[in-house]
Amino acid sequence: MSALALAGLRKRYGRHDALRGVDLEVGDGELVGLLGPNGAGKSTLTKIACGLVHPSEGTVEVAEPFGYLAELFRFPGWCTADEVLLLHQQLTRSPGGPAERAELLELVRLEGDAGTRVEAMSKGMQQRLGLAQAMIGSPRLLLLDEPTSALDPGGRRTVRDLLEELRRRGVAVLLNTHLLSEVEQVCDRVVIIDRGLVVAAGTPTELEGGSGVEVELADGVRSFPGATREDVPRIVADLVADGEEIYGVRVARSTLEDVYLSTVADAR
Amino acid sequence: MRQLAQGLDRAAGVASMSGVWIVARHALQEALRRRVLLVVVVLTALFGGLYAWGCDELFQDLSGFQDNTQGLDARSLAGATIVGLAMFGGLFLGIVLATFLTAGAVRGDAERGLLQPLVVRPLTRTQYLVGRFLAAATVSAAYVLVVYFGAVLVTGWIGDFWPAHPFASGFRLAGAAVLVAALSLLGSVFLSATANGILMLMAYGMGLLAGLLGAIGDAIPSPTLQSIASTASWVLPFEALYRDALRLLVQDVPGVAGAIVQLGPLGGSHDAGPLLIPWVVLYLLLTLAAAAWAFRTRDL
User: 20 to 30 A Cα–Cα from A11, which one of A165, B15, B73, B181?
Assistant: First the structure.
């Protein structure tokens, strides 16, 4: 069962096609990373998913309740952290009460700031409060648009831990980010979009795949592009049979960054 | 599961009043916590004090003025004029308040990122708009009524002048502020907060100017000026409400004094006829419906 299903999604802004027929599914409890260069259509896709933007064509099915953290958002400066969460509890009709608010603030490491006004918070604290707000009402799906853009390394670590916690709770997440390391570490699946089209999709391992075997010989390193770990015994046996002396073997793997850059470059 | 097909807004659905009240209460809380209302109360108290002082001075000066046989009732002239000024001042401040509370409600708040976290909740966009409207309309109408009835009571107590139809006048003034709140909300869907605020205040000024032209047109008389004023009254009915409120204020002042007070001081009194109130109600509903439709179809 899908927490999010987008089919044939198109969005035109005047003559500009922001999305050109995107199909995307996020299964229940699945963490999907959405990658793509600036202007690829990631934020438009996320906004369509949560109803902020109307698609020109296509259908959207979203599990209710869902939570959303916008890329650019702000809470009223006069509200305290607890009041922000209370307002969203009221709007979502969440029965969680003070216990839910306290738990969420603790989850984003703001447990001592329930009474702190938003205007007195750093940008990173506000972003963590935004994450807590998105989780009000125990959503089945979280749509996170650049949730770590304002965070320092410690804050990013908090978000990674939070994503792991969400996975444990079975919450589906669509994570729109530029940070490939986050996606590599926490996401079950990666979708790369460019110029409004899905140009690659799969698990991080599938996308990274093997990119060759390098064997260190007496006269230097010999490469076997496209070979995988399973090919190593045969390659070594062939080389030994040819009388070569082997000093080392390395299975070269491309990183998600390599895949991302080559995929986006190929698409252009 | 929520299904969102082309052109279908997730906000379309049965409106629940709870969302409206939550948004309205939040907007009122904001006005309180950001000390908007405190500033308004302090400045209004200052205005009230100055008004009472001015009223006292005015009616003391009148004590040496004897009614003459020309029909000039100095007490009525002074009372109607000063209450008319208070009506103008109170309505102007109420309109400023209504504009400030709504000018950035949609596009302004969306540009600042305040709107997005709210409207993705199980809250229709119409509910959000109605909530914002209720908060602004309540505050601005209440403000106008407090200033108006305060002025009426002070003038009556000091100068023994009582308007002919105080409640009907007050009702029309409050209605004018409510109309401006709705118009400003509609403007907020398309314009940034600053542009919308300027537009509203200019529209108010235009209405006032048209009313003054109408008063001149009545006095000369000039059918062209009367026609301009009449058209403006229907296009911007808050102006018609203000002039009708003035009419109800001075309706029973007799003789020369009556003729003078009907001309001013800031926009002459004018009877817009029995269609005014139905038109105002329809205008309000159309404005809110247009705002809701425009907001529903807008990408954020």
Answer: B15
